[in-house]
């Protein structure tokens, strides 16, 4: 008998195990039963033990629990369903701490309560007699007649199981992807059944793609599920269940089919980022049936876990203040293979070669990437954010990404220092020859270098003497006038042309052979600040010469008298020209706009000392016989040394034309003039003042508001209503309004430089859609 004891003991133990399993895998769950996240009663099993319903600890936070249905016989314990609750219209997964309780009450109510006793979830099914966890993976609340009052199959999460049916119905009948694999919050994708019986894959409120059911493997050999994954792909998975299947398959879930086959190519949208986030690109690995999101070079994910949020540059974006040489020194274009962002084009060139395509993107501060097609010799510029990025073998075009040059220290050099670098190489070449040459040859080289240096200096000096800035004629120094000369020329300062903050301007005529008409500005205050302002004005204006600037002819500095003598502008001010009884010709207005822009470009970037005017307004823009616009009144100008870019000063300027930064106590740059020019540009387009106080409606009374609204609505015609010439040139009018809105950006760094402004006005570059200015109110002190 003794040899039989171990065998009998084994049979007994197996019997006990069977009884224990049968006890846990209840067929019916009776009223009054309950579950807790921790301990032996944390779940209810199906009869076979394949599935369990109860509490699952979260992967990212094991102290928090999900109410779920999962595959219980596999190590992964893969979740097939999880409870959700709605609050304020937002649906979220039910997550509770360890002291929570789920109870099937004696009243037939399934209720989940937190440690405080508050109910956090309940299906509210009437007439429940008991509950069941079925081998199909469906958890049911059942009535006395055996019919299901509520079931998990009826409110799916992100997964459906064999024999489960998706029905036409409200949003709780949809499959919703998770945000990411470890975050059960609602993700970006939906899958729903339409009325025609087909299943549609849906990217939220954007596109719908018809899908069909896919075949599966034997239920007896494999567990099956179909899940709408976080990447938007609806995949069918199998897991080896029987011994036979395990011999053919590794112990893991494997995707055997997916819809769509390549989500990267399927989800292409006009509005939105596509399958991956902005500035990212999507790639699909067919062998692994896996989708990935990647960032281009010098970009990184906003969130490494939530890659769908997209990528951002890991460098400071290109400033629009850089000139072409500085831009080329700081940035370059790098090639990225088999990747394309099909949207975001804002400018196209054809025919063109790849080298020029690269250059045009590098020097354009709006350009983040370029695409070159060698077959059609076409170049497309793209701006941020890049959308619908896709990596595929079918991409045959050359895609270029703008990135900072690796030699960052050198990339900060200005064009002047770049010239020094060239000279430095020249001297290094000479020194290397010194050490490897004979004495006679070294003396010869020294002579050549000195001779070349002398001539280089001489030629440069002659060029400076011979070629004044932006002009073809010599600049004469301002003439010194006596007070009595100017008093006589103005007939005792009789005819007033205008007045400003620092003085009054009178009309006069010189007693020379040409009887030259002049405008004499009389500085009327002798305060210390005014004295300094006068001297600054004389020194500065005397060194400037440009066809779009009013010329300073002379000055008087006699005793207490301070006067400036300017050329006389016969057509008066832009204020009189633009806001008179008759509407000026459209072409003349265009000419004035371009002239003012070029004059400001000279002041900001081309004269020896950068000048910020600080009071650009129609009264300070004068017109000559040919209606050429010339900027006047540098009495309010703030001068910057060559190595300065900004300054702090008191508030200056005129109501309606003042940039917002004047009121924020921050550094002032040349962008204040850009802002003022934007206002004037709108006035030139619309032939009306920026502020019309007699109009009650504020949106119409303030031109910047109205122009912005009309532009956003595509109704530029309203701005030029009744102006036949402007309507005939509506495309140019729209371009000018777009330039003005760029100039009116509240953030100074968002405004273009005057160089970029002139290029956009001339049509040399295409204009991206300007951001909607957040506020113009600050421009009205």
From TrEMBL:
Domain Bulb-type lectin: 29-154
Signal peptide feature range: 1-22
Keywords of this entry: ATP-binding, Disulfide bond, EGF-like domain, Glycoprotein, Kinase, Lectin, Membrane, Nucleotide-binding, Receptor, Serine/threonine-protein kinase, Signal, Transferase, Transmembrane, Transmembrane helix
EC code(s) of this entry: 2.7.11.1
Membrane topology: Single-pass type I membrane protein
Substrates-to-products reaction catalysed: L-seryl-[protein] + ATP = O-phospho-L-seryl-[protein] + ADP + H(+); L-threonyl-[protein] + ATP = O-phospho-L-threonyl-[protein] + ADP + H(+)
PROSITE patterns: BULB_LECTIN (PS50927), PROTEIN_KINASE_ATP (PS00107), PROTEIN_KINASE_DOM (PS50011), PROTEIN_KINASE_ST (PS00108)
Residue ranges of the TM segments: 426-457
Listed SUPFAM superfamilies: alpha-D-mannose-specific plant lectins, Protein kinase-like (PK-like)
Family: Belongs to the protein kinase superfamily. Ser/Thr protein kinase family.
InterPro entries the record matches: Bulb-type_lectin_dom, Bulb-type_lectin_dom_sf, G-type_lectin_kinases/EP1-like, Kinase-like_dom_sf, Prot_kinase_dom, Protein_kinase_ATP_BS, Ser/Thr_kinase_AS, SRK-like_kinase
GO MF term list: ATP binding; carbohydrate binding; protein serine/threonine kinase activity
SMART domains: B_lectin (SM00108), S_TKc (SM00220)
Compartmental location: Membrane
Chain residues that bind ATP: 522
Protein name per the record: Receptor-like serine/threonine-protein kinase
Enzyme class, broadest EC rank: transferase
Swiss-Prot/TrEMBL GO biological process terms: response to other organism
GO CC terms: membrane
Residue stretches making up the Protein kinase domain: 491-777
Listed CDD domains: PAN_AP_plant
